[in-house]
Design goal:
Blueprint: E1 3-6, E2 22-25, H1 33-42, E3 56-58, E4 67-69, H2 77-87, E5 104-108, E6 111-112, E7 120-121, E8 123-128, E9 132-138, H3 145-154, H4 160-178, H5 181-188, E10 193-195, H6 224-232, H7 239-253, H8 262-268, H9 279-284, H10 299-322, H11 326-332
Parallel strand pairs: 5-10
Antiparallel strand pairs: 1-2, 3-4, 5-8, 6-7, 8-9
């Protein structure tokens, strides 16, 4: 299947978005997500799924206050709240079956396929109750033919900023296809979704998809002032956000404003926005969902393989410089 995205350029005006040239990206393979979910619950392994969420607590001593343990999705507050809400609703048509939450998690994960060469794959996984995992899509690459398309259409070479924008548009267009009418009907009937995808600029002023803490304030991590910012200065899927992004899109597509212009940066930069509307905002905003709250930390890739690995490597270097039995003592522990 092919995915079409609109391609902007500076200095070229268009009457409306419908008149903007579209580039077709072939190679999208995907089944309907709802069919994948249905088939998963028909498998024999479904009897081992956790349909009833629960809380885990740890007592360090008999007199200590209990500490909540966060593990899988079925021990999360989000699933517990959704479970209570679903169970409190009246059944229709005289149905006497038990009502449960089909908790799913969606993960896009770019994968390098070979030790040598550039072969890669970008699948989207769907986890059901943290037991069954299936591929629901393979995200195609933005092929090099866009260079020829851009030159033939606009008479000049495509810029790096436009290519980045096209990558953003391609990703959101694919998610819109996945969240088809059947999917949205099921969501409306109360299936909970948690997912990892944000429409913010990479390594810009605001590094977190949840809050508006600036890069310059990273040194405050762990302090009370940082906790205050995290709770009160948050990303919100508001009318202001839609107005701002659609206004910038009009500049790019209709008025031919350069995507790298100071005017665009001054309007989107303070909140690290990009001139692309999130597919999750488009589909879920009508349900009162703030799509920024759907994102979860990727502990493996964001911390264990990056921050902690770098810190631990640095500590090992310190121990080697210290000498004596420092390394041996570490290995003993």
């Amino acid at each position: 299947m092919s995915v079409k995205i609109c391609v902007p350029t500076d200095g070229v005006m268009h009457q409306s978005l419908a008149h903007v040239p579209e580039f077709s990206v072939p190679g999208l393979f995907y089944p309907h997500p709802i069919e994948v979910i249905k088939n998963t619950f028909h498998e024999a392994s479904a009897k081992h799924f956790h349909f009833t969420p629960f809380k885990w607590h740890y007592h360090s001593s008999p007199d200590a206050l209990p500490e909540c343990i966060y593990s899988e999705i079925y021990t999360s507050s989000a699933m517990l709240d959704e479970h209570n809400r679903i169970c409190s609703q009246p059944h229709g048509d005289g149905c006497t079956l038990e009502t449960v939450v089909a908790a799913i998690m969606l993960w896009p994960d770019s994968t390098h396929l070979a030790s040598f060469g550039t072969a890669s794959l970008w699948p989207i996984y769907i986890y059901t109750s943290m037991f069954a995992v299936h591929h629901i899509a393979y995200i195609p690459k933005l092929s090099d033919t866009i260079q020829d398309f851009y030159r033939d259409t606009f008479g000049k070479a495509v810029t790096a900023q436009v290519l980045t924008h096209c990558h953003h548009e391609l990703m959101q267009a694919i998610w819109l296809l996945l969240m088809d009418n059947d999917f949205m009907h099921t969501y409306e009937c109360s299936i909970m979704i948690e997912m990892l995808l944000a429409c913010i600029k990479f390594l810009a002023q605001c590094l977190c998809p949840h809050c508006l803490t600036l890069k310059s304030k990273i040194g405050d991590l762990g302090k009370k002032v940082d906790q205050h910012r995290y709770k009160h200065y948050i990303h919100e899927d508001s009318h202001w956000l839609w107005s701002m992004v659609t206004m910038v899109q009009d500049w790019l597509y209709k008025q031919g404003v350069n995507i790298a212009s100071k005017h665009v940066k001054d309007n989107l930069g303070p909140r690290s926005l990009i001139p692309t509307l999130s597919a999750f905002s488009t589909q879920l905003k009508c349900f009162g969902v703030n799509f920024y709250e759907l994102f979860i930390p990727d502990l493996l890739h964001e911390f264990e393989l990056r921050v902690w690995k770098a810190v631990f490597t640095h500590l090992i270097h310190i121990l080697y410089v210290h000498g004596e039995e420092a390394i041996q003592k570490l290995n003993q522990r």
